[in-house]
Structures are given as structure tokens and as C-alpha cells.
Design goal:
Layout lengths: L4 E3 L2 E3 L2 H5 L8 E4 L4 H10 L8 E4 L10 E3 L3 E3 L1 E2 L2 E2 L2 E3 L8 E7 L13 H9 L6 E5 L7 H12 L6 E6 L18 H11 L27 H18 L3 E6 L12 H13 L1 H18 L5 E3 L19 H22 L1
Parallel strand pairs: 3-4, 10-11, 10-12, 12-13, 13-14
Antiparallel strand pairs: 1-2, 5-6, 7-8, 9-11
Helix pairs in contact: 3-9, 4-6, 6-8
Length: about 350
């Protein structure tokens, strides 16, 4: 059988060759840039078990497919019949205490084939609070701008008692934010740009017959940290107006903290640091300015140091391992329990 290459004493083979072998003697590790969901599903269909028989990783990480084009948010995902929210606990329980979580891929319930911090938070709370419900609205690629819009459009209908926001990294990332149009997702812009280039892009209605251009609002030049702060202030104001407790968290970021990097992962981290070199200085400036603001706000908390002096927290530039998500959940649970007790 043809061996593709060898790395650290391990022989790597083409996937089709592996599929023909005795799967009882194989552990598959797939590092891919895209197509994570397809590879994941193929292995599951062949009766391989995640984490037991295979692991899928990559710079982008694995997420479940985005199967919805969303007119406001750019894209979205269904969980069964529920749009955009993975629910833990019995949402029909009229006595439930409802906690909603919003964020990007580091909150996404499908990210990296790992157990997300909102799920681990739910598991940590339900022993003492059996009626707890966690409504996880995190979605990969969403920054605080999408969190704000998602809360207004979809989140309020769940009438959460508490709202947790966990963010920061995507607000610095141009692939997740249109720099001059802070309430527009780049995917939505690409969608409308494509429509505009294909003839008559506007519907013949409301007297709009001959549009001359496509616009995305008034362009602005505010810094990313200024936009982030404004978004969080609006999220907090909405939460207060609708009777929610809001607790916001500035998330850990690999280049800001001081996690322990072991010898085996050192070369991988160096590679992803090169991959994101263009963003590292901006990330540091973002953190410094946001930290000054959140020190003045009792509802905001800086979690960037929680991975310091700990190994195996990240598997890329910002996404946490199972161990990392457990640390996040444990830290957030402290604030949640404190506010739940004071609210009762």
C-alpha cells in the first residue's frame, strides 16, 4: 500500500486507502482547511466515532455547515427546527431560569468537535439549578455587531433572564467585520454585491423602479475597539430595558495571554502566528483600549488572562480545546452564580 509521507514516526496515507483497511486498528487525524463537515460526516457514516476513532482539526477549525443565507445576519444555521440557537435543558419548563449566550466561533456549539463552554456551563449549573436552560446563540464568524442584531431580532423572543456575551477576537478580524460598515457582515455584503452585478438588482415595488446604486449605510472611520464598545453598550442597554442581567466577557486570545506551549505544539503555534501576523498588533491595541473601558463597567470582565501558565488551552489562534472550554465555563460560572443569587 502506498504511504504518502511520514511525520514524527507516523505514516500518513490517503483517506481512500484508510477506508479500505481494518478500522479497528486505525485512529484518523485529519487536518484540513475546508470541508470539515463533509469529512466528519463520511467518517461517522462509516461507523467511526468522533474522538475515539478520529479527530478533525485545522487552522479554521471544524464547524457544522451554515445551511441558511440570512438577509440580516449574512448566514445562519438550523438546529432541528430552531434557527440560530442550540438549547440545553427544557425550554418548555415555565419555571426555567434562562441564560442566553452570544458570541462567535469560540461560543459556537459545533466548533472544533469540542464541548462548548455554554454546554459545560449548563452541566456545571444544573446540579444545583435543575430548571436551568442555556440558549446558545454563538455562531462562527459573528462579531459583536451580529450579536447585537441577533439579540434584537431573534434573542428577545426567548425572554432570557440572563445574557452572556463572549467576544473580542472577531471584532478585530476583517473576515468577520466590514471595517467601514460596522453593522454589516462581509458575507452579506458579498451577497448584495453579487446581486448588484447581475442586472436589475432591486424588486419592482414601493415605487422603486430605477435604483442608481447599492448602499450599506453611512461609512464611518471609528476604530475597531470603539465600535466594539458601542455595540456592547447597546447590548447592555437592551438587556436592562427587557429585564435581563447582562454579563460581558472579553475572551482569551492566544497572542495576548501567556499559555504554556509544549514542545510538540510549538511549531504548530508558530505557523498559526505567522498566518495571523497581520492582525496581532491590532489585537494588542484592541485589548489595551477595551480593557481600560471595561474596568469602568461592572457588567464587563476581562478573561484574557485565564489561560496564563496553563497547557493545552488552545488548538489555534483563539479556539479552545475541551480543557480550555472547561476553564472558560468555570470562570464564567462564578459570575453567573453570583448574579443569580443576588437576583433571587
Amino acid at each position: 500500500m502506498q504511504v504518502c509521507k511520514e511525520y514524527r514516526g507516523v505514516s500518513y496515507k490517503k483517506s481512500i486507502e484508510l477506508f479500505l483497511e481494518n478500522k479497528e486498528e486505525i485512529y484518523i487525524i485529519a487536518f484540513v482547511i475546508k470541508g470539515h463537515a463533509d469529512i466528519y460526516q463520511k467518517l461517522v457514516d462509516m461507523a467511526f466515532e468522533p474522538e475515539k476513532d478520529f479527530y478533525i482539526g485545522g487552522i479554521a477549525g471544524y464547524q457544522a455547515d451554515y445551511d441558511v443565507v440570512d438577509a440580516m445576519l449574512g448566514y445562519n444555521r438550523y438546529y432541528g427546527e430552531t434557527l440560530g440557537f442550540q438549547i440545553y435543558g427544557n425550554i418548555e419548563n415555565e419555571h426555567a431560569y434562562r441564560i442566553m449566550t452570544l458570541g462567535g466561533s469560540t461560543t459556537d456549539p459545533t466548533e472544533g468537535n469540542n464541548k462548548s463552554w455554554p454546554e459545560q456551563l449548563y452541566e456545571g449549573l444544573r446540579t444545583d439549578y435543575p430548571d436551568i436552560v442555556v440558549i446558545n446563540g454563538g455562531l462562527a464568524g459573528y462579531a459583536s455587531n451580529m450579536e447585537l442584531l441577533k439579540l434584537i431580532r431573534d434573542g428577545l423572543r426567548y425572554k432570557p433572564d440572563m445574557l452572556l456575551t463572549f467576544d473580542g477576537f472577531n471584532d478585530v478580524n476583517f473576515s468577520c467585520v466590514c471595517e467601514n460598515y460596522p453593522l454589516l457582515h462581509p458575507y452579506a455584503k458579498k451577497t448584495f454585491d453579487r446581486i448588484e452585478k447581475n442586472g436589475n438588482f432591486a424588486p419592482d415595488t414601493l415605487g422603486l423602479r430605477s435604483p442608481s446604486r447599492l448602499v450599506y449605510g453611512m461609512a464611518e472611520q471609528n476604530a475597531d475597539y470603539e465600535i466594539y464598545i458601542r455595540n456592547l453598550r447597546m447590548i447592555h442597554s437592551i438587556a436592562e430595558e427587557f429585564g435581563m442581567i447582562h454579563i460581558g466577557f472579553l475572551q482569551p486570545m492566544f497572542s495576548i495571554g501567556k499559555p504554556i506551549i509544549d514542545e510538540e505544539s510549538d511549531s504548530f503555534y508558530k505557523e498559526i502566528t505567522r498566518e495571523y501576523a497581520y492582525i496581532l498588533d491590532r489585537m494588542q491595541l484592541f485589548k489595551e483600549n477595551v480593557a481600560l473601558w471595561l474596568m469602568q463597567k461592572e457588567y464587563m470582565h476581562d478573561l484574557t488572562p485565564i489561560f496564563d501558565n496553563k497547557p493545552h488551552m488552545y488548538y489555534d489562534i483563539c479556539h479552545a480545546t475541551d480543557e480550555g472550554n472547561a476553564v472558560i465555563a468555570q470562570n464564567i460560572e462564578i459570575y453567573v452564580r453570583e448574579r443569580m443569587v443576588s437576583a433571587c
